[in-house]
From TrEMBL:
This is Acyl-CoA-binding protein. Residues 3-84 form the ACB domain. One of its GO terms (molecular function) is fatty-acyl-CoA binding. PROSITE patterns: ACB_2. The lineage of its organism: Bacteria, Pseudomonadati, Acidobacteriota, Holophagae, Acanthopleuribacterales. InterPro entries: Acyl-CoA-binding_protein, Acyl-CoA-binding_sf, FERM/acyl-CoA-bd_prot_sf. One of its GO terms (biological process) is fatty acid metabolic process.
Amino acid sequence: MSLDERFQDAAARAKSLPSQSNENLLKLYALFKQGTKGDVSGPEPSAFDFKGKAKYGAWADLKGTSQDDAKEQYIQLIDDLAQG
């Protein structure tokens, strides 16, 4: 199975994970975005948009991580969370 196929499989499995901490949800979001879009782009949300600012910050922390590395990390995190 190719990396992209494993990534899509992990993304589908993510929907059936039990409830996760905000920290894990931010990691998943950031890795998914880095894996699909690359480095963060666009303006940073305002300080009043707490959720948007947290998501933007988590994604920005991955700047310079290759899309393939982000996909591998995402797959590993899904596997770890699925095992509980």
